[in-house]
Amino acid sequence: MAEQFCDIGGGITLCYERFGEESDPPMLLIMGLATQMIGWPDEFCAQLAERGFQVIRFDNRDIGRSTHMSGRPPTPGELISRRIDPVLYTLTDMASDTAGLMGELGIVPAHVVGTSMGGMIAQTLAAQRPDTVRSLVSIMSNTGNRWKGQPAFGIHRYLLRRAPDDREGYIEYTTRLFEAIGSRGLPFDRDRVRDMLARSYDRGRDPAGPGRQLGAVIASGDRTAELGTIQAPTLVIHGSNDRLVARSGGVATARAIPGARLMIVEGMGHDLPEAAWPQLVDAIAAHAHAADQARSGAPLSAS
């Protein structure tokens, strides 16, 4: 496992890592807002690889070691009013980035798993480029409908406030954010979170990047109608105690995508707690294997 870089054209280079055997079916993991690819824990990726997948995680544009864009991020007023001017890029552009990476790595079609904003990117990819997606898993995400999947009271202040610039201040502030939105019904591993944030800070931090990403989400609007065109086998996973994207966001996503199955993880918030990994890995792997069996015409196994 080593970081690599892929020029996908259009002035965008994405940083990525592989786990598992390249001969295995590819599974692409798309991370969420303001979070680097290492938000997918190494052990989580390894467990998916052990289930027979070539697992690829990557930094979206404007985060980590991938290309950072130029341009002013939206102001708090623009984010609240949902009037983004100018629109620098949208979820469609981020889905195009993802498709470009897949094409350059030769992993089309792939099983695509996205969390939070990554789930929105994965949904957009499945809707707009159906030939690239073997199966879709959307985790703790939503449809863009402003009345579904909204943050709990008190969370907005974290979204609209900038983290401190110094290393320790950034780590402590963002740890508190993870505590606020994370799982309350499952153990919270503060040391693991702090380690991930320290590594993220050291890999490279752009204070304006998350704002531009959030602007892309808001500028993309309500995607409910588009989700109705998705043909890929879809599993929607949501935590029962998600305070950043309320459970209604997952319910709306499953209702919008034809044939989608909804799985609620009791006690999970807006994070990937280690206590939930067995359930998550089992569900993701089983969904992907079933999609491959259906694609090949082979009978489904009893498992």
Walk me through this protein's architecture.
- The protein has helices spanning 42-50, 76-81, 91-105, 117-128, 156-160, 167-181, 190-203, 209-219, 224-227, 247-256, 277-296; strands spanning 4-9, 12-19, 26-30, 54-58, 110-115, 133-139, 234-239, 261-265.
- The two termini are 30 Å apart.
- It is built from 11 helices and 8 strands.
- Helix content is 40%, strand content 16%.
- The model has no long low-confidence stretch (mean pLDDT 94).
- Strands 1-2-4-3-5-6-7-8 form an 8-stranded mixed β-sheet, with helices on both faces.
- α3 (91-105) crosses α4 (117-128) and α6 (167-181) packs across α7.
Topology record:
Elements: E1 4-9, E2 12-19, E3 26-30, H1 42-50, E4 54-58, H2 76-81, H3 91-105, E5 110-115, H4 117-128, E6 133-139, H5 156-160, H6 167-181, H7 190-203, H8 209-219, H9 224-227, E7 234-239, H10 247-256, E8 261-265, H11 277-296
Parallel strand pairs: 3-4, 3-5, 5-6, 6-7, 7-8
Antiparallel strand pairs: 1-2, 2-4
Helix pairs in contact: 3-4, 6-7
What global shape is seen? globular
Mean pLDDT: 94
Amino- and carboxy-terminal Cα gap: 30 Å
- For the largest sheet, list the strands in their spatial order: 1-2-4-3-5-6-7-8
For the sheet with most strands, the description reads:
8 strands, mixed
DSSP helix count?
Answer: 11
Assembly status: single chain
According to DSSP, the number of beta strands is 8
* Percentage of residues in DSSP E strands: 15-25%
Task: Return the structural class.
Answer: alpha/beta
Q: Helix content range of the residues, please?
A: 25-40%
Poorly predicted tracts of residues: none
What order do the helices and strands follow? Answer: EEEHEHHEHEHHHHHEHEH
Radius of gyration: 18 Å
